[in-house]
Write a structure and sequence with these properties.
130 residues; alpha/beta; 5-stranded parallel sheet; 45% helix
């Protein structure tokens, strides 16, 4: 995929681990994606309202509000969600909340980029840009 194609997808990374946010953001930016970051659910809510991302990579265990609780704020949401977590036991609940994928930490760069690419391809098909 060309950089132009990737940059048409807006991504949001949500995690309270600053180092993980920076590394994931760096990997995706080098592949041409437009990436925003948030370190809490409250911050992520504002970014989603302002930037309307296509894809949100979301941690589950965060202070004050879990990623699963956070999704309940978005009835009829328009963005894809990929959970990035250390906890495999939330996978079933994540699927019930229409998660596109579920990546276990430590997140592998190849898995992260491949997931973003699959979603970008789905977006292009949906937009009739394939």
């Amino acid at each position: 995929m060309s950089q132009n194609t990737n940059s048409s997808a807006r991504l949001l990374l949500v995690d309270d681990d600053r180092l993980l946010l920076e590394s994931m953001g760096s990997w995706l930016k080098t592949k041409g994606y437009e990436v925003s970051e948030a370190s809490s659910a409250a911050e992520a809510y504002q970014v989603i309202k302002e930037c309307a991302p296509d894809l949100v990579f979301l941690d589950i265990q965060m202070p004050n509000e879990t990623g699963l609780e956070f999704l309940d704020r978005f009835e009829g949401r328009k963005f894809f969600v990929v959970f990035c977590t250390t906890y495999h036991e939330y996978a079933v609940e994540a699927l019930r909340k229409r998660a596109f994928d579920y990546l276990l930490k430590p997140v592998d760069e190849r898995d992260l980029v491949a997931c973003a690419k699959r979603i970008t391809e789905k977006l292009l098909i949906a937009r009739g840009e394939n």
